[in-house]
Structure formats: C-alpha cells, structure tokens
C-alpha cells in the first residue's frame, strides 16, 4: 500500500511530548507532517508554544463549499517499559498485516489516514488541519489556541480519528468521550532516609501512609470512588441510549485482559462503567528501595500519580479540587503532602445523528459492507469539548484503531486494513459531502 | 594516640563488600587485619568463601584460662553519594577529635579497638577473633561457618562492638537486638499495561490493590500490625526491665528526624516501640509511570518490599509465614500475588547481668567514671543469635559508636575519645577476667 511507506517514516520519529529529551524530535514530527500537507496543496503554519508547536494547515478551494476541520496529534506516549517491546518502539515493523510502533494507533496512524485520503481527492471541499504535539500531556497550548483562533478554525464539520472501533471489522461512530483529571501526590515524612532497625517504631513511613490514603480513595467492596461530592454532577443514562449500544462480549474482554473478573463499580454493567461512570486509577507509584534484594530503609519521601475519568456533567477543575481537598483531609498526621495538578479534560457528548454523522455512517456502510455501531469511549480528547464550544460545529468521532492496539503500552500496533478502509471511508465521506450529502 | 595511625591505614582500604569492583580491596582489608593480629601473637586462618574471606585468629595462652571470642566485620557500605562527603570516604581525615571515613564506626573503628587493646596485655586470657567481610550484605557465608566450626569457636564470652552508645559520654551495655523478616510482594492484574481511558472501569489496578493491601497490614489509628498471630509470641517487658533504661529525649529525637510526631504503636513509649515491639515498614514500592508529567496507564504489575523487626520470642520463618498467609488472604480477587522471602534474622535477648556483663560494667565505670546504661537496640545482627545457639556463651554487646555516626550515610565518623576509652575499657575487662572476675 502506497500510504504505508510515509507512515513508517512518521512512526520512526520519537515524538514523546512528555520527555524534555525528545523536544527536538517532537518538532521534527510536526515539520515532517507539514511537508506532507504542503505536498497535497496545503498552506501550513507552525505556531510556536512554550512547549511543542501547533501545526495549522488549510486547503481552501471554494468559499461556497463545505469546510472540514481535521484534528489530530503528532506526539506520542513514552515507550517504556522498553524491554517488553518485540521491536524497538521507534523502528516501525510490519508483522501479519499490522504495523508495530509507539504511536502506530495513537494517533499517527489514524491521523495519517486523514492526510493520505486527500491525495487527488475528487469533489470540492475545503479542508483544515489542526494538529498538536501536546495531546499526551493534556493539550495545554491547544485549548487557548482554539479559543484565540476560532475564526481561522471555522468549519462545518469537525473530524477526529483518535479512538477505536468497537471490535475488528466493525465500523464505529462515537458520540461521547470521558473527561480527565490527573494529579500527582508527594508525601514526606522524616527529613532523611532512615534505617528501619534504628528508627522503626518512631518514624513516619510515607509508603505506609500512601497505602492508607489509596485505600480511602476507592472502596474495595463496591468499587465506588470515596471522594465526597464526586458523583453529584454525574448525568444518568437513559434506557433509550443504552439500546443504541452494541452488545459487549465480556468473555472476550476477560480473555483479552487475561483476567477472571472485570472489577468495577457495583450496580453498573461493564459498558456503563467504561462509558458513563467516572473512574479513579492510580497510574504510578514510587518510594524507597526498588532494586534487587533488600535494603532496610524507611524512605523520607514517596509519591503516586492518580487520574479520574469524568463523565457529563463533571468539570475537571471542580473534580481536581474535590480530590485535593479530600486528599488533604485523609493525609495522616506527621506527613507533608504536596499535590500537583497535571492536567485535565472535559467530557463530551454529541448528537449521534447529526447530518455529518449520518454522512459518515453512509460512507462506512459502503466501505465496510455493514452499518456502523454507535458507542461512547472511555478515553479523553480534551480539545473536543473546546472545539464544540468554539466552533458550534458537529463533531464526528471516527475511531480507526482497535481495542487491542496496546495504546500507551508496549507493542502498540495499528491494523493495516483499518488504515486502508479508513482512507477509503474518508474519501467517500468527502465525495458525499461535496455532493451536498 | 598510637592506636590511631594503624586505624587510618585500615580505613583507607575501600573494602566495599557489595561491589564486585572492590573484591580485591575487601581481601586486602582481611589480610591487613590478619597481619596486625599476627603481630600481637595470633595464629590466623583465612577461610575462603564464594565471596569474601572469613578471618579466624586465635591466641591461646592457657587451656585453664577463660576464652573470649571477638566478632566483627572488616567490610563497609558503599560510600555514595560521594558528593556529600567533606573528605574522600577512603582518605580518613581527623577533624575536631573525630575520624571521618567510610567504616570509621561501622565497623573498622570499633573492631580496631578490640585489636589495639591486646597490645602487651597483662593477665592470661585466651582470645579468638571471628571477622567477616560480608556483614553489609547479610552474612551469607558466616552463619553456616559458625554452625560448622562451633568447636573451634568455643568460648566463655562473646564480645561484639558493632553498635552505638546511647548518647555521647554515656557508657552503654546492650542486651537485646531485634530480628528481621523481609519480604517482597509482586502483584499482577491484567496481562499487559492498559490505557486508563479505554479500560478504566473494568481493569484490575495493582497499584490500587497495593493500597488496599498496605492499609490492612497496619492499622492507621492504633499503629498495630494486623497480621493475625503476629503478637502471639511477643514477650511482655517487665517494669523492672524498663527501669534499667535511660530516659529518651523525645524532643531531641523529633528534631533529629525533622518531625512533629513520633508515630508508632498505641500504648507504648518510643523506647518500648524501638526495642521491645515488632514493627512493620514497607521499604520500597513501585508500579506504573514514575517519570515526570502524566501517563494514563493502568499497569499490569506493581510491587512492594516490606520488612518486620522482630522481638523475642518471634521467629523470622514463622513470622514470614504468617505475613505470607495473611497477604494471600487479603489479596483482592482478580490479582495474582507472588511473594519472595528476602532474608531474616532472629531477635536476641541476653542477660544484662551475666557475669561477663557485670565485669564489663565494672570496667566501663572505672574508665568513664560512671556506670553504664542498659539498652536494647532496634537493629539486627543476624550472627548474634547464631553464636548464642552454637556456643552457649553469654554475649556482651559493647557499642562504641554514637547515634550520630552517620552509618551507611555520607561523612561517617568515629569519635576518638570512644576509641581511646574503648581500648582502655577492653584492657580493663581482660584484666578483671584474668583475675577471675
């Protein structure tokens, strides 16, 4: 497939946005993409930000034709743990119809489908691209950019592929996303590391304290988050909406995860928990001696990262404040707690049957031979809420990845059939749009 | 002082037992010490082990005279972080009556006092030395050596100086040590790392599970260890024994640790908690993303190390089994738990008023001008229980260091007054012993 070669090039750039050591690589990815868009007739602008540049590009053919704004991101998650990768994460490798690399599915492969689809496109549609390099760190620069440039970004449809199909060979349209609140907690006890023999019995132990704190964040029996007020704004879900959803193969999900139970909030089905309920997960923890063997230390410091997925109508700032207040309340005496708010994102709910959604449904059915299923997603794309607010245009969330793509994990991959059919779907969508629906 | 010059030589040998790069240096320290003992009339034997040699030496003057066995170690901790040292750690430097060097107090300085004390000793006492080079890595070779050579090691008294005086200018006799049980716990959830958006709500989270587990190991309110049966064998401490103890300056301890409270088991004083009560401390924890910024991962694995300090009559193997059984009981469903037992050591309690302790008390009082205080210690010296069992001889723990000697830390030091008075005390002890007490 001719679209594959450039994608392999794109994937070989280690554009890890969270790691300052990769700052130049992130920029390199932006410049690479700009070049590909210029090759397709786009005018490009690189907007500098305090961190990584925002790439804006436009190909305006006809002021009377409809305008599509494509959003995507060219940055990727860190690749660790490296030792679990079968090929180096930035040496993209094709095996059995899939390309393996960090960013293959999230989001370079999906974004690339949108760029590749524009080659020799018949029909007149104006296309704009808004591509950022800070999605994996919470889009700090993009949100103000959108607010500031709403004129420039004006469009009739917003297209975003940064998600997954519900299952293989199952065309999928997504009408909801969860939001995010991410915090880091650092806990200090004594002024220095202590010998556990000489001081065990009188010394604060920040690791033990983290245990007490974590156990109070989520109830072990019910799976409910214990932060006061957290559920106050959670919107109930209608039976009618639930009837839209495809059935979930729980057995297959258990098999995929290699687990015997799917733990979660009591009283809700797995799909409800994934799509319509807030969740809380610690994402990292550290403290004391992590090497081989034993060291009898009581560490002076320890810490953890914790994030919450949010649903309409929760607000990330409000939730972060609720969590912070609760953390300070449950911090045991004798410890100093430092809390960093790392990033947030608002939840999104769109109309599953807006006109562009109906067009995309048609294109999907023609390409895949079956109508799409309608889903929400558990993940977060912070800019979506912002684009909805700023542009008042319907958003089409067309996930081209798959649930087993290993996002944010070793051996991330992207199925080449999804690349191929994704490109075909988008080309058909543009044709239908140019024809006036 | 003529005893100082050789000690500076001893301290200049970087005998870091844990670092393979220093293997020859460790051997050099053993050979150096053997030479000093031969100069004093000892016959020496270097026993090879898989790692570092055990030095045995004896000076047997009279089969009818009492026999003393001195234990010590010639290996030292690694010196890092080097940048925090005021002099290079293996360039021993004397400032304000103290010698600064790695190993100054632990244990070369204290061990050297025992060797120096034997110069031209009047009175007939048989003396044996058992000196290892693996104390800082858990004495793997010494424990089997003691069991195998109990005939050779036979003695009427065991003398050990590898500890600290309770406070400066405060002669101290120690009659108890805590034991140790050290475990590592690894927890697995899903088969791979997962995206917290895509799977938050159905995925096991080993970090969260560790929180629940840690919170059940120790009660936050009472500070009690919650492992069933753990306190069953804990021997109560008599009021009579507590009256032996020096008063603890809690304010000074809080200042030293930089804390406002000294957390610990409810209902017991700090000294009781440090010396006579078992404690449990997680010593390390890891899982998920530990780097800068945010990563929205639900890790497949996480783990922690936890150790317990034990008191008479707890047994490390039994305690490790109790902890292991309890950990398996409180492991939430959906997680796989792997438990490693890292190492253990038995607690020790000796008779504070055994005949050799009374002799040493007399010697201390004559040299320091005040009677000794009686302490236990919170730390563990695994070989002591082994020597007690193998030799059935009373053990005298004569700490010559000080609590602020910076053991295992930068700027380790040894007060020269402790070297001088330590040598004088030991010489007086041998005289009293030769005189029949």
Automatic annotation (TrEMBL), chains A, B:
Keyword Magnesium: no
Enzyme superclass (EC): hydrolase
E.C. number: 3.4.13.-
InterPro entries: Cyt/Met_Dipeptidase (IPR051458), Peptidase_M20 (IPR002933), Peptidase_M20_dimer (IPR011650)
Pfam families membership: M20_dimer, Peptidase_M20
Keyword Metal-binding: yes
Tree of life domain: Bacteria
Domain Peptidase M20 dimerisation residue range list: 175-333
Sorted UniProt keywords: Dipeptidase, Hydrolase, Metal-binding, Protease
GO molecular function, one term: dipeptidase activity
Family annotation (Gene3D superfamilies): 3.30.70.360, Zn peptidases
UniProt name for this protein: Dipeptidase
Organism: Thermus brevis
